[in-house]
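Narrative summary of target 7.
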Amino acid sequence: MSKPSSGPLDGLLGADVLSDCDIDLDFPGRRITFYEQQSCPSAAPEWAGSYAEINTGRSLTDHLFFPVRIDGRQIVAIIDTGAQRSTLSTATAKRLGVSEAILVRDRVITAHGAAGEQLSSRVHRFSSLEIGGEVMGSPELVVADIAPKDADVVLGIDFLSSRRLWLSYGSRRIFLSHR
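Modeled conformation, tokenized:
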């Protein structure tokens, strides 16, 4: 099996389709399993390992959004399995205290947006990223001039690839395996 997004795509499944199901995204096991949507409060994955349970909201565009903390400050995140790198909007980075003077010292990369457009971006190292009670030290996030409708940061494959994730649209929760 090839790596995610390692070649041409035949199509995309967006939140408009995925929101009709519960989805088990087992990135280490390289499996995706679709389940009938659960809406009861006791809905949970059937994993042997431990996980964090994250309450979410559901946006008008059917994305599950949830709080995360970067350097101790709360912002809103969404998950995008089509994004290779986790990306923070430049506007949010500035709200978190990352000035233009700081950003110009960061490594420059060319990222690609959802429509394939090239985005001039910087890779910035933050002190911490907290998701579902798990704290990651010194995360590197791409900072780019993006304007996601539903969030401040998009968590991509770089974050997800070593985890198992259960998206429960019906119960509005995300279950995230611990590493």
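The helical segments are 15-18, 90-95, 100-103, 157-160.
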